[in-house]
Design a protein that fits this description.
Elements (H helix, E strand, L loop, with lengths): L22 H4 L20 H6 L11 E5 L6 H12 L2 E6 L5 H16 L5 E6 L6 H5 L2 H5 L4 E6 L3 H4 L2 H5 L1 E5 L5 H13 L9 E2 L1 H11 L3 H17 L4 E2 L1 H8 L11 H15 L3 H13 L4 H16 L5 H16 L4 H14 L5 H14 L61 H14 L3
Parallel strand pairs: 1-4, 1-5, 2-3, 3-4, 6-7
Helix pairs in contact: 9-10, 9-11, 10-11, 10-12, 11-12, 13-14, 13-15, 14-17, 15-16, 15-17, 16-17
Length: 448
């Protein structure tokens, strides 16, 4: 959807926001200095900085770029900045509506302008991952010959959604979700800036905290919610946006959940104990409370990984595999889809047989070490690879396990002071039941 008045553009063809444009459009950064959360892409001499300010590197031509990042991180904004600040002609296309014919018309026009000193063209394609291979192929000559400076935006991993020839001809720039301080600064700017709400309303602290949680790193979402709350407050004759005004504006009740207060610790405690207690329904309930409240999904994922080790352990070693994969996928995908990934991991951990034997084992071993029960490493286990080690008796009498029946060598591994100590005591639950039987056989072979 075009958020701008199509007739209201500057000389380069960059759309201007009208008074009736949404707040997210009116507050779009006008300079690189106003861009929040993407400082890693705007360093002096960086490809993006060269595009915005070609004079910075003299005659070195800028490259086409692919902007990859979550919604609301500034991909369209950066494209507008490049065209506006550099004076290049700006053409915007949406991969949802444009076809191959449309692409070729724009490229031919850009080529003609370039050959007749009509200036360079910035071609911005939003949601480029929606282009078919044929449509992306149509861009290759223009990018190869620099008839256009392509700026393609995508929310999906370009390695899977953009053809290799186009990727190899472009620079991939990854945008990050905005952190809470960035969003907070953006909200403050929107409240006071003449382009935004111009100081007509203020925002109560609890409403601000709730808005920041709902935004999930998405600047557009933050400003959309702020505008809705401001509209509700102003229509009621108020000059302050309350939590109630935000709730009524978006028709979603705020989940009382203070990330730094009791609710945070109570909910995460109940979440962990529900997984440990194998109550999958309760675990999903507390997961939902955290997700709806805007808790960082990476924090949730870390707790699931810990539970998979601490409470499931070797009773189901695949639970840790699932949890770690979920944590990695959450970091890659982000919200809202991350909720599905988290739910899968939570169900696995909650439903798995439970054992804290590994957890208890390492704690017992550490208690001995911290109490000074260490002893010396048996001579036959010491490093025998350096000069003089043989003279010291290092490695003498060591039995190579693979040469022994069952792959277990009958020899002492613990220091003398700890001989016979048993730290790992498996349960009879899940996969650990088989480990218990195997461990008994191994300890018999070790004569322990």
């Amino acid at each position: 959807m075009d958020l701008f008045d199509a007739a209201n553009t500057d000389d380069a063809g960059v759309p201007r926001a009208s008074d009736g444009s949404p707040l997210a459009v009116r507050m779009r950064p006008a300079t690189a200095g106003e861009v929040l959360g993407q400082g890693h892409l705007l360093e002096p001499g960086s490809p993006l900085r060269r595009l915005i300010d070609p004079a910075e590197v003299g005659a070195l031509p800028p490259s086409s770029v692919i902007l990859w990042g979550p919604p609301g991180t500034g991909k369209t904004t950066l494209a507008y900045l490049v065209a506006h600040a550099s004076g290049r002609r700006f053409v915007e296309m949406s991969a949802v509506t444009a076809g191959v014919k449309d692409v070729r018309v724009v490229i031919e026009d850009a080529r003609r302008r370039l050959s007749t000193a009509g200036g360079e063209t910035v071609l911005f394609i939003d949601e480029v991952h929606r282009f078919s291979k044929t449509q992306q192929d149509a861009l290759l000559p223009a990018v190869e010959n620099r008839w256009v400076t392509l700026m393609a935006a995508t929310t999906e991993n370009p390695s899977f959604s953009v053809i290799s020839p186009l990727l190899s001809r472009s620079i991939l720039l990854t945008l990050r979700s905005l952190e809470t301080p960035d969003l907070d600064a953006l909200i403050t700017r929107a409240l006071t800036d003449a382009r935004g709400l111009g100081g007509r309303v203020t925002l109560e602290d609890d409403a601000r905290e709730y808005l920041l949680r709902l935004s999930g790193g998405d600047a557009r979402k933050a400003l959309t919610i702020l505008e809705a709350g401001a509209g509700t407050a102003l229509s009621a004759g108020a000059t302050t946006i309350s939590l109630d005004a935000v709730e009524r504006a978006i028709d979603v009740a705020a989940v009382r959940y203070d990330r730094d207060g009791d609710q945070h610790y109570d909910v995460i405690s109940a979440f962990i104990k529900s997984m440990r207690g194998s109550d999958v329904d309760a675990a999903l309930h507390y997961l939902a409370r955290m997700v709806v409240a805007g808790e960082d999904p990476r924090f949730i994922a870390r707790r699931v990984v810990i539970a998979a080790s601490e409470d499931v352990g070797m009773a189901d070693p695949t639970a840790l595999t699932t949890a770690v994969a979920a944590a990695q996928a959450v970091a890659l995908i982000g919200m809202p889809e991350a909720r599905i990934i988290l739910a899968e991991a939570v169900v696995h951990v909650a439903m798995a047989p439970k054992s804290n034997a590994s957890y208890m084992g390492i704690d017992k071993a550490m208690a001995d070490v911290q109490a000074g029960r260490i002893g010396t490493v048996p001579a036959h286990l010491r490093d025998a690879h350096y000069a003089g080690s043989e003279r010291l008796g290092h490695g003498k009498g060591y039995v190579y396990s693979h040469d022994e029946p069952h792959g277990v060598a009958r020899q002492q591994y613990l220091p003398d002071e700890l001989a016979g100590s048993r730290y790992y005591v498996p349960t009879d639950r899940g996969y650990e039941r088989t480990l218990s039987e195997r461990l008994d056989r191994i300890r018999g072979l070790l004569d322990r």
